[in-house]
Design goal:
The protein is an alpha+beta fold. It folds into two domains: about 5-35, no CATH class; about 40-150, RNA polymerase II/Efflux pump adaptor protein, barrel-sandwich hybrid domain (OB fold (Dihydrolipoamide Acetyltransferase, E2P)). About 25% of the residues lie in helices and about 30% in strands. The chain is built from four helices and ten strands. It has helices spanning about 5-15, 40-45, 50-60, 65-70; strands at about 20-25, 30-35, 80, 85-90, 105, 110-115, 120-125, 130-135, 140-145, 150. The strands form three sheets. A four-stranded antiparallel β-sheet has the order 3-10-8-5, with no helix packed on it. The chain is elongated and about 55 Å long. The termini are far apart. About 15% of the residues are buried. The model is unreliable at about 40-60 and about 65-70 (pLDDT under 50).
């Protein structure tokens, strides 16, 4: 089966309509990958880039520099990062208590959040034990692969 132009255009529309950055399909020996490169994706793709992304707006807005400066060194401990692109949810349902809060002690393997990706709810489990010292994203925020979700100390 040969990939038709109409089929490729439909895949591109799926990416645009669902705010995806990449889609890959295989059919026998043929495969196709379509990527949508966005400037903010490259800034947040690696956990190391997250602090740099925070400091960029600070230099652009000098009035906020004193307020944001104490937050930059605050992250300490081990980072729990997103294993996928999706939407962050802090609780299993809108009316339920969050999985974790700042100050809560968690163990390795505890569910810390849900990431919705392509209509699937994926439970994210902690790779570290300790106390949650910072939650870096808000409920409903779109997140990228490798983005820091929270820090555990």
């Amino acid at each position: 089966m040969k990939f038709e132009t109409d089929y490729i255009e439909k895949l591109a529309k799926i990416i645009a309509d669902n705010e995806l950055t990449e889609i890959s399909l295989e059919d026998g020996e043929q495969a196709i990958t379509i990527r949508k490169d966005l400037p903010e994706v490259t800034m947040t793709a690696a956990p190391v880039a997250a602090p740099a992304a925070v400091s960029a707006p600070v230099s652009a807005a000098p009035a906020q520099a004193p307020a944001a400066a104490p937050e930059a060194p605050a992250p300490k401990g081990k980072a729990i990062t997103s294993p996928m692109v999706g939407t962050f949810y802090a609780s299993p349902s809108p009316d339920a208590e969050p999985f974790v809060e700042v100050g809560k002690t968690i163990s390795e393997g505890d569910v810390v959040c849900i990431i919705e990706a392509m209509k699937l709810m994926n439970e994210i489990k902690s790779e570290h034990s300790g106390k949650v010292v910072q939650i870096c994203v808000k409920n409903g925020d779109p997140i990228e692969f490798g983005q820091v979700l929270m820090y555990v100390e």
